[in-house]
Design brief:
Elements: E1 4-13, E2 16-26, E3 31-35, H1 42-50, E4 57-62, E5 65-68, E6 81-84, H2 96-106, H3 111-124, H4 140-152, E7 158-162, H5 170-187, E8 190-195, H6 198-204, E9 207-212, E10 215-220, H7 222-227, H8 232-237, E11 242-249, E12 252-255, E13 261-263, E14 270-276, E15 281-284, E16 290-299, E17 304-310, E18 313-319, E19 332-337, E20 341-344
Parallel strand pairs: 3-8, 3-9, 6-7, 7-8
Antiparallel strand pairs: 1-2, 1-4, 4-5, 9-10, 11-12, 11-14, 12-13, 14-20, 15-19, 16-17, 16-19, 17-18
Length: about 350
């Protein structure tokens, strides 16, 4: 069993607190992503799970084993984990087979068993045909798979990945996301994955934990995080979104800079911020929820990326590509709003921005 339980963990380096009261449970066999901007504490949390850092306070359990607390500390080599770092960290003088076999040699496993384990894991990561090559003869994505195979070969109960795709180009990152997820599904292993890339988090995760300034902002499935963000930070960090200042009263929100309004039956009253994702604004001929003026449009092949002015506010609209030829700049536009969120207006100017 490889579920992870983190109880009230805090980590400080001197007077600087990098994680505050981190409480979470990562279920057995799930892909859990720690998502947040640089410096938010996500890598520190991963290093504490691995045993490379000790919590200042709190407890960490892997399965039923307490691995970190004020009284207990299990070193990394005793935690039965595999870890893949941002750098490939493969030995350039060893073949692929030798790189992957190294952890088993350290465990004094016999040669026949090593061969069996290595060949099995190389098949899983699609590198069996490259077993005798050295890393300089491999692409970046293949080298990253060598590192992944080396982490998996000893059949750990837990796999930790620290931004493993950030050194790859965009096309390789895209393919590796799906490969890593398929490997996790086929093995049924628990994975904790650290990234600042919301696309990686959305495509790979069963559970996403959004962190900012050392605090958990939201925990949920990717669809929950994206469609029902709990605050402006989560809404802004996970995907693109338009923020519009408004006032909530009498079952509706009215935009502050125009007479336009949307029906709203939620609990928030007074000054609020309306968040609308660009793909949730649709061009329609008549009967729209909002009216605006098309300022600009950009044909990107798969979408028509537009800017529309609504009562002095500029919003981004991701429309269907075929709409590009149907509308002209300066034209009056009717917009249907499929979904929107409403947040307390905290006066955070960083989030009250025009999408560009």
């Amino acid at each position: 069993m490889s579920r992870i339980i983190i109880k009230d963990v805090m980590k400080a380096f001197g007077d600087v607190v990098v994680l505050n009261n981190f409480d979470a449970e990562f279920p057995d066999g799930k892909f859990v992503t720690l998502l947040g901007p640089s410096g938010c504490g996500k890598t520190t949390m991963l290093r504490m799970i691995a045993g490379f850092e000790k919590p200042t306070k709190g407890e960490i359990f892997i399965g039923d084993q307490e691995v970190s607390s004020t009284k207990t500390f299990v070193p990394p080599e005793k935690r039965d984990i595999g870890m893949v770092f941002q750098s490939y960290a493969v030995w350039p003088h060893m073949t692929v087979f030798e790189n992957v076999a190294y952890p088993l040699k350290m465990k004094k496993m016999d040669k026949a068993s090593i061969k069996e384990h290595v060949e099995k894991v190389l098949e899983i990561v699609h590198l069996a045909q490259y077993a005798e090559r050295i890393p300089s003869q491999l692409s970046g994505g293949q080298q990253q798979r060598v590192a992944l195979a080396r982490a998996l070969v000893a059949e750990p109960r837990l796999l930790l990945l620290d931004e493993p795709l950030s050194n790859l180009d965009a096309k390789l990152r895209d393919s590796m996301r799906f490969e890593i997820k398929e490997i996790q599904r086929s093995l049924g292993i628990t994975v904790v994955y650290v990234t600042h890339d919301q696309m990686e988090a959305m495509t790979m995760s069963d559970i996403v934990i959004v962190i900012n300034h050392g605090d958990i902002q939201q925990i949920g499935k990717p669809t929950e995080i994206y469609r029902y963000p709990v605050n402006q930070f989560v809404a802004d960090f996970v995907g693109k979104i338009n923020f519009i200042a408004a006032t909530s009263a009498n079952g509706e929100v009215q935009f502050k800079n125009s007479p336009q309004r949307l029906p709203y039956e939620g609990d928030l009253k007074g000054d609020v911020v309306v968040g609308i994702r660009p793909e949730n604004l649709r061009f329609i001929k008549t009967g729209g929820d909002l009216t605006g003026t098309l300022l600009s449009k950009f044909y990107l092949g798969d979408v028509n990326d537009c800017r529309v002015e609504i009562g002095g506010e500029q919003v981004r609209v991701i429309a269907e590509p075929k709409s590009f030829d149907k509308h002209t700049e300066g034209e009056s536009i009717q917009l249907r709003v499929d979904e929107f969120s409403v947040f307390v207006d905290t006066g955070d100017e960083d989030h009250m921005k025009i999408l560009t």
